[in-house]
TrEMBL record, chains A, B:
Homodimer. It is found in: Cytoplasm. Pathway: Amino-acid biosynthesis; L-leucine biosynthesis; L-leucine from 3-methyl-2-oxobutanoate: step 3/4. This is 3-isopropylmalate dehydrogenase. The lineage of its organism: Bacteria, Bacillati, Actinomycetota, Actinomycetes, Kitasatosporales.
Length: 346, 346
């Protein structure tokens, strides 16, 4: 019999609530012969306030012993900006070398979008997860004075760019439209931009069936609202990916339904799956959060571990559920989770 | 009698066509007693191909002798990406210390937007123009090899941040809603982010009537498409400003109507006004380009030089013209310019 050994990090705010529903749906969809073992970790604001710790070496060792990680949300206004982001979220992405940050955007039937005319949106962003302006390189001199200088260094390597570009080409190759767009700002960030562009063009030679285009990040935001249907797969750097995936989520149903995977394709470390949304402390504990993004993140987790049928079953259930929402009164977090659990089991 | 001594840079592609209409409207709106003198400069792709020059010290001296600069567009596919951007556009912004990059977004009545429900959009972005990731700091080692490393350094100074933040507060103070949003990514780019946030909070104390908020750049893209009416004045760094102003233009009528000013408020160097759009070589020379963004840039130019009445007259004329477009057959570049010139004169 098979087993799925899952590290669960509910985290802060609505994280607790949405993760409970994600696990509910996971249990309902898993084949009988798969033994699901979960271990919960208490990372986040409470642990930080209690111990001053965000993510220790021992924590990383404990997490490493799992097949995958499911995370709700980390972040609370009581913790200074950056402490949990750099001390936990980014530390984990870097420690486990999560270089493929996968963020699909699909506007499902019946789902509201701020765009007029209900465009067809179905693309996936492959965001680099371990380089760029996210490395924490940089510093400050003369802090707090009128002579302060603060720098941020974007670090880009051929090694790091090539592996994520190659992953994106493979994903594009496997999709019906076989299109890949590189998004950067190579007319201004010429050092990093030329590296990205050259590597992209070199890898493209190995994928002659994939149609490629290059787009500046500023222009990309225009296309995301005027012609989102033009995108199939996008590959981009860490910061540009952060920005455009929030925009992509907004136009394709909102961050209530945006899932993501922080993937290490080598399998040397467990990959981590999380909704794109944050901890939303303003609505925490009220049963108001939509668990759909977490449930869709569970689907990404299952696909990553080879459970393709189960992943598709979750996605179909979500699609049906969203399509029928217009007719229903608002439901609580657990009511939505219950409905999805019934659907995937049935 | 007064004089307006204008440097004109038509540039590449549609730049020539739209600048001609901008000048047409400028001539029509200027009071009789103002003597308009224009000097045309041939910067752009042709000059680069002919001489290898983009912008020399002598060019900068010649430009400096003017009250302001009107630019059409610079850029052509025949020139490698980055050469004209860094060698001309950014060189000029840095040489003339254009630290206030002003980009208003207003959805005028009757103008199409990709957003559903025709939201009320009327805000202005104050984008820092001389720092951040645009400084050209950085480099490449082992270029072209599998060991290449490319860096980009974002440089931020208290001096540079404070002056643009102060400018933005003053603009917010002068507007009816008196709201100012700082957009950054201070949870990840903690060095630069803390500098921006601290300076912003310090200057805020001098403007107690201005309501402030902070927003991460990724979240800002969501609000720009779901709640654009919430924004009044935005202040942000050079790169974030580049990205969100293209998105802002897209939702408020498109880059065909997006104007900008590269302003040096000290007056030590002439400020430069240009449409946000590029040279659009695909439609160049066909009379298809919309000169409205250039005409609105002329309005910003006039306001900067103290011609408030004339600036407002241009903006009113554009507003009326756009409102009536739905009923009209498509017009050529010069037909739109003619119509606007008649309106501002009348
Ligand atoms: C919380 C923050 C560190 C994170 C990021 O910037 O990557 C978030 O915005 C995301 O997109 O996952
Ligand atoms: C052409 C390019 C250098 C420029 C920029 O990035 O600032 C443009 O996108 C703009 O917004 O004016």
């Amino acid at each position: 019999s098979r087993s799925l050994n899952l590290a669960v990090i509910p985290g802060d705010g609505i994280g607790q609530e949405v993760v409970a529903e994600g696990l509910k749906v996971l249990s309902a969809v898993l084949p009988q012969d798969v033994k699901l073992e979960t271990k919960e970790f208490d990372f986040g604001a409470r642990r930080y306030h209690a111990t001053g710790e965000t993510l220790t070496d021992a924590d990383l060792d404990a997490l490493k012993a799992h097949d995958a990680i499911l995370l709700g949300a980390i972040g609370d206004p009581s913790v200074p900006s950056g402490v949990l982001e750099r001390g936990f979220l980014l530390k984990l992405r870097f420690a486990f070398d999560h270089h493929v940050n996968l963020r699909p955007s699909k506007l499902l039937p019946g789902v509201a979008t701020p765009l007029a005319g209900q465009p067809e949106i179905d693309f996936v962003v492959v965001r680099e997860g371990t380089e760029g302006p996210y490395t924490g390189n940089g510093g400050t001199i003369r802090k707090g004075t009128e002579h302060e200088v603060a720098t941020e260094v974007s670090v880009n390597t051929a090694y790091g760019v090539e592996r994520v570009v190659r992953d994106a080409f493979a994903r594009a190759q496997a999709r019906p439209r076989k299109k890949l767009a590189l998004i950067h700002k190579n007319n201004v960030l010429t050092f990093a931009g030329h590296l990205w562009t050259n590597v992209f063009n070199k890898v493209a030679e190995e994928f002659p069936e994939v149609t490629t285009e290059y787009m500046h990040v500023d222009a990309a935001t225009i296309y995301l609202v005027t012609q989102p249907e033009r995108f199939d797969v996008i590959v981009t750097d860490n910061l540009f990916g952060d920005i455009i995936t929030d925009l992509a989520a907004a136009v394709s149903g909102g961050i209530g339904v945006a899932a993501s995977g922080n993937i290490n394709p080598s399998g040397d470390f467990p990959s981590m799956f999380e909704p794109v949304h944050g901890s939303a402390p303003d609505i925490a504990g009220q049963g108001k959060a939509d668990p759909t993004a977490t449930v869709l993140s569970v689907a990404l987790l299952l696909r990553h571990l080879g459970y393709e049928t189960e992943a598709a079953r979750i996605e179909d259930a979500v699609s049906t559920d969203l399509g029928e929402r217009g007719d229903l009164p608002a439901r609580s977090t657990s009511e939505i989770g219950d409905a999805l659990a019934v659907r995937v089991a049935g």
